[in-house]
């Protein structure tokens, strides 16, 4: 299903995919990916996934308003994340907004961009667990099409600097 990775072929450059969500630790993933991009001479792709709400026919007007608001919120989140990446590495990341189930959209973005070399996620350091996306991916890692790097949300900038 996933296309061949071309990230290190002539005319291509490796890209790191980062999920920008509403978690407190998204910044750690953006920080690591931006530092990685500097060292690898690559780029960063930032993905925001909007999971659709259940809709009934009589609420379609409200659903469209909610969808528009979700897109505005996604753009604002990507603006913050892109500003952070630019401040760290003086790069302008690619921005992608997708609607649908998280895993399905994540795999589709990877499949559509053969330059994506790695997915970077940040795990929550809290007692409630690493977060829903990290937990979801844990079950798919054996068949995932690119390497996955999970950064602890508890790492400082200095700690990430020494690792990237």
TrEMBL record:
Pfam families referenced in this protein's UniProt entry, alphabetically: Usp
Top-level taxon of the source organism: Bacteria
Residues spanning the signal sequence: none
Ranges of residues in domain UspA: 15-151
Protein name according to UniProt: Nucleotide-binding universal stress UspA family protein
Phylogenetic placement of the source organism: Bacteria, Pseudomonadati, Pseudomonadota, Alphaproteobacteria, Hyphomicrobiales
